[in-house]
Amino acid sequence: MHNSYVGRFAPSPTGPLHFGSLVCALASYLDAKKNHGEWLIRIEDVDGTRCKPLYTETIISCLSSYGMESDRPIIVQSQQTKVYQHYLEQLKEAGYVFPCNCTRQTLQAASNQHIGPCSSTTNTPHSWRLQSQEVSFHYNDKIQGPLNFHINSQSNCPVLKRKDHFFSYQLAVVVDDHLQGITHIIRGSDLLETTDTQLFLYQRLNWTPPSIGHIPLLLDPRKQKISKQNHAQALPEGDLYTLNAALSYLCIPPSHCDTIKDTIKHAILHWQPAHLRFKSALQIKSEHAHLADQDQ
Length: 296
Ligand SMILES: [Zn+2]
Known about the structure:
Blueprint: E1 6-9, H1 19-34, E2 38-43, H2 53-65, E3 75-76, H3 81-93, E4 97-100, H4 104-109, E5 127-130, E6 135-141, E7 145-151, E8 159-161, H5 169-179, E9 184-188, H6 192-204, E10 211-215, H7 240-249, H8 260-270, H9 281-287, H10 289-293
Parallel strand pairs: 1-2, 2-3, 9-10
Antiparallel strand pairs: 4-5, 5-8, 6-7
Helix pairs in contact: 1-7, 1-8, 5-6
The structure holds zinc ion (ZN).
């Protein structure tokens, strides 16, 4: 029996959590708990060149300090490579992927077309790419509203397995979400651009995609995404002020509770994802300028 709501938060251990990731974690957690669902943590360390195991513990401990614990054992993607290989083989058999040894330069010169040596050999180091096809998707984003995506045969064919043998985020995330029975995803709108490829992969694997909602991006006063790349400050553990700031960004009314636990309870009660639809990035910038100012 599948649970009717299984949500997840899937951080990459490329650094400690920051304010932007706390907001995303809380959004997925509140949505799951408001719907009496399960909420899972999954560690997305599929990119072995950027992820560091030491951050995995830091991230899990930090989430726990804000009252968020995984309802099932935590899956670590780097231990799942056999599973990803299995589904890559399935896609190979169906003829949906092709080996590619193009470089960025040869692709650019050929307007993204995979010609010449690209598909002629699998003996040299090569990646595996998903073959593009003319296809449209319409889906109702839980927060952004109805969205349309169109992939055409000229679209860039996404890499599913890299030349250095690491699997791509795109394949790993779709396989894990499906195998874990994830029914609802709430994540940052920076991942909107990955949605069309993921929906296409669901179709290729004959799986039903989960419901997806993208929360508006948190920007700093320089209008940059608050991210590790932009040197966002590491989160303090279990800090009520920080939690309240994150919840206010998520349109949760002030609670005046004096513990993390009670504040989270209050937030679950007041979580309304539709309220986020109208929240523009600009509003967010002015509301939380004081927080971002603390970054360096
Ligand atoms: Zn190629």
